């Protein structure tokens, strides 16, 4: 089982990322179950704007797309900015829009039979909105979204410390992150063993 985490922080490496710290809890849970997990910090890559899988010279999205399609599990991890996903997360979703019309050799949409989940951080309210936006987009693209396939942390309304600066709420997020990992793994394993048939994915009788 392989999992790819897209860290959509706005902080380039090697700057510490609260989003990465929270996503690592889910990664640890997946590794315990036997999954091979890779995290990609998207801001470190030249991802061109657009809605195609390859935007030409210098575009690093094709390599990231290949990692996604070589994985059974996709996790998008985003900070919350003014109540919305980061601009990096939005760009990744826009690039994955091309997957809507892309199919495998048997005609199955490329995102089918893969599961997805969401990790959200932020020291302001809005995490559930971000989860809904990203999960809605990933579902439209064709990913399967298991129940309780998200974890978030925020400090509540107003300014305050970030996830890595406080122990506030950590017991809760550790518990939910572990559950998220188990649910993602279980549904990914079920789809691997009994994939959605190509004729169903194409809407055939």
UniProtKB/TrEMBL annotation:
Residues 2-153 form the NADPH-dependent FMN reductase-like domain. It holds the Pfam family FMN_red. GO terms for molecular function: oxidoreductase activity. InterPro entries: Flavoprotein-like_sf, FMN_Rdtase-like_dom. It comes from the Bacteria. This is Multimeric flavodoxin WrbA. It comes from Amycolatopsis thermoflava.
């Amino acid at each position: 089982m392989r999992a790819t985490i897209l860290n959509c922080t706005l902080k380039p490496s090697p700057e510490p990322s609260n989003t990465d710290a929270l996503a690592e809890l889910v990664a640890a849970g997946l590794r315990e179950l036997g999954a091979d997990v890779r995290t990609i910090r998207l801001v470190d890559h030249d991802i061109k704007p657009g809605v195609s899988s390859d935007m030409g010279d210098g575009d690093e999205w094709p390599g990231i797309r290949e990692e996604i399609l070589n994985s059974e599990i996709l996790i998008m991890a985003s900070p919350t900015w003014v109540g919305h996903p980061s601009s990096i997360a939005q760009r990744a979703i826009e690039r994955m829009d091309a997957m809507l019309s892309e199919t495998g050799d048997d005609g199955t949409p490329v995102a089918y039979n893969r599961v997805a989940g969401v990790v959200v951080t932020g020291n302001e309210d809005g995490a559930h909105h971000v989860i809904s936006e990203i999960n809605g987009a990933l579902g439209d693209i064709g990913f399967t979204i298991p129940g309780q396939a998200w974890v978030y942390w925020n400090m509540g309304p107003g300014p305050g410390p970030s996830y890595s600066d406080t122990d506030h709420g950590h017991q809760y997020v550790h518990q939910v992150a572990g559950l998220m990992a188990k649910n993602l793994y279980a549904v990914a394993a079920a789809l691997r063993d009994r994939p959605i048939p190509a004729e169903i994915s194409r809407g055939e009788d």
